[in-house]
Amino acid sequence: ITCEDCVLIMCDQSSMRSIVRFNDHQDKIYQMDTHLAMGSVQKKGGDSVNFSEYVQKNLKLYSLKNGRSLSTHAAANFIRGELASYLRKKPYYVDLLLGGYDEKEGPALYFFDYLASMQKMTYGAHGYAAYFVTATIDRYYKPGLTREEGMDIMRKCIEEIRTRFMVNTPNFLIKVVDANGTSVVDLN
């Protein structure tokens, strides 16, 4: 969710395959840069971590070579380009949400799918629970949300998932990207 001064990114922390849940403490939101975080939904084993690390290392290489980091928009276009080029070779089966904060532009959220489509959005969701989450956010979202209003919507999304979704996902993680960088936010 894009708020007036930040971007909120949430993920469940369950790692599962088919009918088995392996882990309930996985961080699916990767810090790409000081003011850039990417939430990744894995469609096929290993692609989420591999692609996230690939992007993270390339963004770091760019900043070392040029003495400055990419803006959120530029990083989004780099990610889209990489997804598109790998689509023709060995595709990464990942759906992504990229949230960032720039001094001039403020907060921004970009939505990617595994076919390399990219769209700047005010809110978005991926995965099976996206049906519930998107409907909930759509109902309560308004432009210019404060951080606390955004957190309230996130809590409503978690409640909706716990009420309606057939898979038990006990733990959720929310990270905020703002002028101070990326940080984990307590749900309470």
Provide a descriptive summary of the structure in words.
The model has no long low-confidence stretch (mean pLDDT 92). Helix 3 packs antiparallel against helix 4. The chain has a five-stranded antiparallel beta sheet with strand order 4-5-6-7-8, with helices on one face. The chain has a three-stranded antiparallel beta sheet with strand order 1-9-10, with helices on one face. It is built from four helices and ten strands; from the N terminus they run E-E-E-E-E-H-H-E-E-E-H-H-E-E. With 188 residues, the protein is an alpha+beta fold.
Summarize the structure.
With 188 residues, the protein is an alpha+beta fold.
Order of helices and strands: EEEEEHHEEEHHEE
- Rg, Å, rounded: 16 Å
Structural class estimated from helices and strands: alpha+beta
Detail the poorly predicted runs. none
**What overall geometry do the principal axes of the alpha carbons give?**
globular
Name the average pLDDT.
92
Per DSSP, what share of the residues sits in E-state strands of 2 or more residues? 25-35%
Range of helix content: 25-40%
Major sheet details: 5 strands, antiparallel
Work out the number of β strands: 10
Report how far apart the termini are.
18 Å
Strand line-up across the major sheet: 4-5-6-7-8
Figure out the total of helices.
Answer: 4
